[in-house]
Amino acid sequence: MTRSRTVALVGNPNAGKSALFNALTGARQKIANYPGVTVERKAGRLTLPSGEPVELIDLPGSYSLDASSPDEEVTRRFVLGEFEGEAKPEVIVLVLDAANLEQHLVFAQEIIALGRPVVVALNMIDLAERDGLVLDPDALSSSLGVPVVATVAVRRKGLVELAQAIADAEHRFDDHPDAEPQPHLTLPERRLAARNIAKAAILSESKGRRLHAGLDKVLLNPWIGPFILFAILFVVFQAVFAWADPFIGLIEGATEWLAGIVASSLPDGIVRDFITEGVIAGVGSVVVFLPQIVILFAFILVMEATGYMARAAFLMDRLMAGVGLSGRSFIPLLSSFACAIPGIMATRSIADPKDRLTTILIAPMMTCSARLPVYAVIIAAVIPATTVGPGIGLQGLVLFALYIAGILGALVVALVLRRSVTKGGASGFIMELPRYQLPRLKDLAIGLWQRAWVFLRRAGTIIFAATVILWLLLTFPKANEGESQLDASFAGQIATAMQPVFEPVGFNREMTLALVPAMAAREVAVSSLATTYAIDDDGSEEQTEAALRDQIAARWSLPTALAFLAWFVFAPQCLSTIAVARRETNGWKWPSFMLAYLFALAYVFAGITYWAAIALGL
Ligand SMILES: Nc1nc2c(ncn2[C@@H]2O[C@H](COP(=O)(O)OP(=O)(O)OP(=O)(O)O)[C@@H](O)[C@H]2O)c(=O)[nH]1
Ligand SMILES: [Mg+2]
């Protein structure tokens, strides 16, 4: 009995092997637009044009014959005939993605060098053409020394030609069975050769595609790429301070004007106090940060729209793998820079439950936009607006450092969690990179408007409510003659009771007090301080963000202010985040864990910052 001959489909992940397999055999293998779909070999029957049946084997995608993962191992063993009782495949069909030819040629050379009969299926030529790339299969064939057939697996194009080439390859090899394996090339040598072969196969390439390829070469370069990303982020945080000032001035002017009108038109009394100290000082002190939030999001939206953000994710993938997370966690973590709530919801796209849990647990450490007002007001108050280099403002630098502190903290925590409570292997991830595009002004405007609206709505609802409650607690009971209102009030009493806990990390009583309403939303810390100082400082007529800044500058020492900033890098100051974490993890166990470890981190880091600053004589 003669065993039917076998033909194997080999190539990089996502080249379209399974799609070709299905088209050639009528099978229904799972295909999908991401690498690593096929993880086992699957056999089917292919009838050659001569009517002769052969066994076609679909193999997992692979980057190299030096297998690193179990699925790649299957491919290697099959191609080299290492499976017990199975012969080597008679013909290897090497499936290449025409749109990513250079990358795919790296592995292709390794296969061709085996000296076995090979037919190249130059697949996805439709995508290449869509991108403005016209390839010459004959040129490719003469560089590689094997037949090349252009195919579009999903549209059944080139299938007959491919089957014929398979039949021919078999016979040609039967005639010259003595083909010698070629000398082994190292990976860098194969990379270089891949570039030259790919270049030689290009008939024409549109200007746009060349530009995009050139951009990617720079932006995704393993050395230059991260540097550029870092530089861009650096500029963003500089801009948040440098560009916002005139706009902040406008809003401040408007608040002052409003406060003036209220002060002169309302009679002295509780209503006037409520409006000036509670609403205008409290809510107004938060609204003033709108320009900074808009600037931050303008940058983020532009990076998303141009396709740069996906490249940033790609660059971060290796870093993420280093701490046991996959690049899949990047997008959820990135959304957490706006707010941890959508970020935690976005983790639903992470298949591995432990990957997902780890991502949820660290998401609150990404600096959400609610922290920006807190950071901004304290930085403006205690960090001098000097420059530390050409065009580098110290305030922007400190803000940048706070964002980095949150990211580093998250990475370290992920590393620890992945070795302890959420132990497990990291899953690989390679993402499709979208094409570069110029952002559309209209989309940008809509995106910014949405962000601004979310922020203003928060100011009008949750921040307003928390400020009003705090104002009531600060205003009653009324102080006796000679007593300070802060000491006498309910809020003051609460703060005094909590103070022993926070005294060791350098917090003063107003800061301690601000922590409580800030559980509703972090920005409330700002409005709370503003209201507290407005009530405490009855002499002043000015009750704006500028006044708050002056109060902080006058009353807080630098170590105290830095400790407060360090606290907010980590503290899980937001009940809605905890509630979402509960919903997404189906229970209180993980949210409680999250609360506990984040508060502990916040406390420890505030303390370290405070005492280190004192030791440094700041
Ligand atoms: N436009 C176009 N899409 C294709 C073509 N061939 C495959 N695809 C698509 O490319 C994606 C990947 O195809 P698969 O067949 O799963 O790729 P694979 O090589 O088996 O990938 P792994 O199993 O992960 O190694 C799927 O979304 C296919 O629909 C083609 O010629 N043209
Ligand atoms: Mg497959």
From TrEMBL:
PROSITE patterns: G_FEOB
InterPro entries listed in its UniProt record: Fe2_transport_prot_B_C, FeoB_GTPase, G_FEOB_dom, Gate_dom, GTP-bd, P-loop_NTPase
SUPFAM superfamilies linked: P-loop containing nucleoside triphosphate hydrolases
One Pfam entry name: FeoB_C
Molecular function GO labels: ferrous iron transmembrane transporter activity; GTP binding
Residue stretches making up the FeoB-type G domain: 4-172
Any one GO CC term of the record: plasma membrane
Chain ranges passing through the membrane: 218-241, 278-310, 372-392, 398-417, 455-474, 561-581, 593-613
Keyword entries, A-Z: Membrane, Transmembrane, Transmembrane helix
Name of the molecule in the record: Ferrous iron transport protein B
